[in-house]
Amino acid sequence: MRTRVLPLAVLLLGCLPALPQSAQGKPLLNGAEFSAGGTVLRIMALREDVLRVRMWREGHEPEDASWAVLPTARTAQVAVTPAAGGFETGALRVTVDAQLRLTVADKAGHVLQQDSEPVTWTGNRFRIRKKKSPDEHFFGLGDKPGPLDRAGQAFVMWNTDSFGWQESTDPIYKSIPFFISFQSGAAMGVLFDNTWRSFFDFGRELPDAYSFGAPDGPIDYYLLYGPEPKRVVESYAWLTGPTPLPPLWSLGFQQSRYSYEPESRLMEVANKLRADHIPADALYLDIDFQEKNRPFTVDQIKFPKFSQMVSDLARQQFHLVVITDLHIAHLPNAGYAPYDSGAAGDHFVKNPDGTTYVGPVWPGPSVFPDFTQESTRAWWGTLYKDFATQKVAGFWNDMNEPAVFTYPTKTMPDDVQHRIDEPGFARRTATHLEIHNVFGMENSRATYEGLLKLMPDQRPFVLTRASYAGGQRYAATWTGDNSSTWNHMRQTVPQLLNLGLSGFSMSGADVGGFAGSPSPDLLTRWLQLAAFQPIDRDHAAKGTRDHEPWVDGPQHEAIRRRFIEERYKLMPYLYTAAEETSRTGVPIMRPLFLEFPHATVDGHPLDLDAGGGEYMFGPDLLIAPSPSPEEVAPYEVHLPPGVWYDYWTGAKLDRRTAVAARDLEIRDTAAQAKPVMVTPKLEELPVYVHEGAILPLAPLMQSTSETPKGALTLRVYPGDHCAGSLYQDDGSTFAYTRGAYLRMSFTCEQRSDGTVKVHLGKREGSFQPWWKQIRVEVMGGPQGPRMQTVNDNGQETDVDVR
């Protein structure tokens, strides 16, 4: 991880202005409480750089509970120093004026966030307004379509089944009310923890203000100070939990369709992947494998030997993922076990009159588990017992917004009743208006926790469509029912970047597009791009042409195979990045500004120069697809300052004197600041490596279950701060929590005689790796890579490569 000194641009945030008369606050050990006009404002310091802000009208203090924030974080506290009109922490100065307007500044007095006017209420509806600078940028809010930067846009949080969404569609599947404000190289995160239908306006209504609010529920939000954006992301993971370490196979190539049926068709696809030597790890079954679309059933006519099929796939090193939607067919007295056991336990949501709510979905009339009850989540988990016994590897929770075939709302009525019976919450009944946005998250939570009970030493893989803040603790996700268009492929990058910033590091988009049939070139381009994204799943809808890698002939298949193979060679690097995110919350797929927040002279995010299409895959690989992938004209690649290497050729690009600024006249005064021009070719995707990177690579495998044959390769790109790391374990169990892991660090030093000394650190942990030797490849030499192979005995050693 590279560190950089903050430039003077950070100081441009502005100095603390004169405020109206300060409010008289009641000091608290960890903050202060203020009151005015019948309103109470309480601000608490959870850490030196994390604040919690709560506000209510006197006599109506809301329940102190959260579906999103971990109890340990929500109740954390640090002592503060009282000050006029507020208090100070080790990092922040908090001031409240007589109208309860909040200002947060750093210790030098530079304003980080400031209310533009007092909070307003209309009945239970409220709105919080903050001052917005012209050069302020906003990122996050999950998988909302549109540009990477949310500035100038407005959004609604209401999980919605949005088949065929477009770039301007809002809302779609997830409600993650977290965003990062980025200005002059400094970042502040905001989590608005309100589960109702909330809204966010980032300067669309008023160019000098941004706002958020809701029609009901609490004013309860968290401020996470950087100033580095990576620090904000790490603090958000501390607050809501990181993505768990996934099973290794889930990082491999995944092939899916709505639907592979019958059994022989699925086996045909599996056999073709192996026969054509296209590496792959997972196959999916959509709803047609079920009897009459009823969850937790198997169609015995289409899949007569289901258990044997799962075993046969496992012998070919495939993991099977099956869909388990949350709508349970309403079939009383029909011998349908999920309904019978759910009804017996009173586990379904109710109408206001106390009867069970029934709505139409894929099985026909259906009932819905009341996931706000701990007992209901425990019951739901038991439904996976048969699949777990049969060694089904993963589970796909779709349609959990919840989607209901009623129009125009496409969900259950607002007055449906949910019974909250959950540790940390008061027992009460809530309407669907309050629970809707957390329903999908609690569904995936029930699945994840149920699988842990059934298979305590196996890492669950759950894929969810709908979720809320904190949902990354339970499931991976994808961007829903996208379309087979160039624009939707282009949308994938900003969506996945904002999902990663919002906690969901394990995310992907349906490769090739779900709705529609991609042209051969579009499918090839999409498979190339997805090889460098966290989840690589090729998926398609009914009625569309086949999407499998071989469908467009040998030329396209060869290109697609090559990029999938490259993903598998990079698996040690990718798995190391996945382990990092499980500890720190830093996503696998990252915007440029997360690694290079000070790459521009005026402090704006470099991503905006690149049209939001470039990104980092892990800490060291920069992926640079065309911002208009359907075009054939050359396009600009904007590299951060420094030395970069072409990943494919090893060619060196010196950007050490680069200047990145929006003023083209300033930018073009430095020859080396000019963007790299790339002429797109179908078989190519530009990938660059930052100097000082040491990439761990493996020999090519056909699945992650295969033991690699040969040496571990360390590909060294000499330069400043030369370092790298590697993490390994068994890829499937929790043995790593008991010390059965391997962690190694590497450094390199370029000597005056041209020799590169590579230092291999001592192995940490008890896990024994597959390799016996390490091959060191040093890039950037005039004659190409220089190589040296050494035996690896797990001890520190130095390798001199000439």
Which properties best describe this structure?
802 residues, alpha+beta, Immunoglobulin-like, eight-stranded antiparallel beta sheet, 14 helices, 47 strands
Largest sheet: 8 strands, antiparallel
What amount of the residues lies in strands?
Answer: 25-35%
Radius of gyration: 27 Å
CATH topology of the domain at 9-240: Immunoglobulin-like
* Outline: globular
CATH superfamily of the domain at 9-240: glycosyl hydrolase (family 31)
What does this structure look like?
- Strand 29, helix 9 (486-501) and strand 30 form a beta-alpha-beta unit.
- Helix content is 19%, strand content 26%.
- The protein has an eight-stranded antiparallel β-sheet.
- The chain is globular, with a radius of gyration of 27 Å.
- With 802 residues, the chain is α+β, with helices and mostly antiparallel strands.
- It contains 14 helices and 47 strands.
- Among the domains are: 9-240, Immunoglobulin-like (Sandwich); 584-690, Immunoglobulin-like, CATH 2.60.40.1180; 710-801, Sandwich (Immunoglobulin-like), CATH 2.60.40.
